[in-house]
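Known limitations

Files may contain more than one protein. Parsers should not assume a single record per file. Below, a two-record file is shown to illustrate correct handling: read the sequence, read the token line, then continue until end of file.
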Amino acid sequence: MTLGEKIRYLREIEGTLRGLGRAMTQLEVVRAVKSELGKAISQSYLSQIESGRRPHMTNTTRQLLAQFFKVHPGYLVEDPYGYHAELMSDLRAMEDSLDTWLIDGAERFTHDPELHQSILALARHSDSRKCLLLLRAIVETPKLVDRLSEVLNPAPLRKTEIARSHAGDSPVRRRRNR
């Protein structure tokens, strides 16, 4: 895992622990570090670390972020290629990589809270790979998405179905249906 991925991951965890239901933004981390630890770090510095433009950080920053996120300072370095902190199968390593990818992707959809939370829920599931394979089977099965939507979330679908059924009606027929 890169240093940037670790910081993004820690922001996600910290946001969840603080009851935000989302990752803390970089600016929220900066403000929280200032208010809770009395020390400063800039948002642009965090952004450079996360984007990989700054692959290393100073020891002072490493200590500060480790204290804030409550992790060992040694965690805040880039892992060598192929490194795993624990014994795990190739499938579990792939699952961790998939979860990180999903969390990163969820950040791109913060403007759509339902989609953002759905992607995060998928990443938090113990077997997100299995969930995605199941989703593929659902999508590839004709009419199954619509049927599941109808059963699991009937109110919004009914509105959609009503709108679709009225779209094909003649003006006279629509008036009678009202």
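...continuing to the second record:
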Amino acid sequence: MTLNSTWSSMNERSLTTTSDQSASRFPAVRVLRSKFTEPISHASDYSGARAEKNPDFLMLKPYSVKESHSVAKKKILAVARNLFWEHGYSGVSMRDLAKAYGCRPANLYNYFSTKEAILFEVLLEEMEQIIGPISHLEEAEDDDPVEQLRFIISSHLRVTLSHRRSAKMLFDVALGNLSLNNRKVIISMRDTYDRVIRKVVQRGQEQGVFLPYDKKLVGFMISSMITRSRIWFRPNKGVTVDELAGVIFQFALKGILTPKGSDGA
């Protein structure tokens, strides 16, 4: 299998992974989603079709009682990401969220039962997007571990930089604000990510293309390079996301590649 075909194959498989698959791997996700996000009432579908055609419409259109439930939830989560980043989770009240969203505080409870439920949904959504595209790599024994590592870095970086603000909460301070059960769900999903990247590193070591460093440390260092990039990265200034993914990949690869691996890279 060529490197290009390997890369294409991994991309095709990642497109078939959905949040439903995440829920099947993590039953607690399905239960907690139902518990915290079941609406009290449903609004009629008004703007959902427009939002699907133009995602920017989610942030441009003010609150309307006619907008669909799913669109309203996405807008609330987008507002929450910004406020939690700017003021910290403890510094934002449901009243603050309602004011920024453009509704009465009571309206928020049609979508989320508590402020913690909003935080949990923000973090859960990001973890699903990180794990979904790469989860199949844990069992992909026949694929090239070098290309698998490239794919993990590129996929994770895109999610991190597209949700740059909530990424800080996910890896720094937010977990302490979650209830024990919610925290366990997010930590379990993070453990899955760690397990996948370590498996890829181990696979490369077994094939003789990666140096026999501690795979746990290698995984931590690679994920740290990715997550910390959201501190300094600025869109349209300096490197592009694709260019940065290539730099991180090459930097990581040169640190663990054996002479045998260098011949095939």
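Parsers that stop after the first record will miss the second one. For reference, the second record is described as follows. The first helix runs from residue 3 to 15.
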